From TrEMBL:
<keyword id="KW-0732">Signal</keyword>
<keyword id="KW-0677">Repeat</keyword>
<keyword id="KW-0325">Glycoprotein</keyword>
<keyword id="KW-0768">Sushi</keyword>
<dbReference type="InterPro" id="IPR035976">
    <property type="entry name" value="Sushi/SCR/CCP_sf"/>
</dbReference>
<feature type="domain" description="Sushi">
    <location>
        <begin position="36"/>
        <end position="93"/>
    </location>
</feature>
<feature type="disulfide bond">
    <location>
        <begin position="64"/>
        <end position="91"/>
    </location>
</feature>
<protein>
    <recommendedName>
        <fullName>Sushi domain-containing protein</fullName>
    </recommendedName>
</protein>
<keyword id="KW-1015">Disulfide bond</keyword>
<feature type="domain" description="Sushi">
    <location>
        <begin position="1"/>
        <end position="35"/>
    </location>
</feature>
<dbReference type="Pfam" id="PF00084">
    <property type="entry name" value="Sushi"/>
</dbReference>
<dbReference type="InterPro" id="IPR000436">
    <property type="entry name" value="Sushi_SCR_CCP_dom"/>
</dbReference>
Length: 108
């Protein structure tokens, strides 16, 4: 039985056998271990991502532009199961308006 190291998956047959003629079954097939790919993680709107790799062990760090607050995971890592750790990263706007004296007045 063929196995791959963590972070890799087997491409091809998992079991090969030595046949009576001394040749391995499926010898014409190319069994190989390929690195896990988690897929692209986009930069959040109004934010930035540091990190471009998308394979097992890759990391991404997120920041938000001035005036925005990060919601979700600041740091994510491509795991052996092919999924990114953590949760979706979003940059939420903060309402920051300086009120003028006219806006603070009430009329009767």
């Amino acid at each position: 039985m063929l196995n791959c190291n963590p972070g890799y998956h087997l491409k091809g047959r998992k079991v090969i056998e030595c046949e009576v003629d001394g040749v391995w079954s499926g010898e014409d097939e190319k069994e190989r271990c390929e690195i896990i790919v988690c897929g692209e993680l986009p930069s959040p709107p109004n934010g930035n991502k540091i990190g471009t790799l998308i394979t097992y062990g890759a990391t991404a760090i997120f920041t938000c532009n001035t005036g925005y607050t990060l919601a979700g995971s600041h740091f994510r890592e491509c795991q052996a199961n092919g999924l990114w750790s953590g949760s979706e990263t979003r940059c939420l706007g903060m309402y920051q308006k300086q009120l003028t004296s006219d806006e603070m007045c009430c009329t009767a």
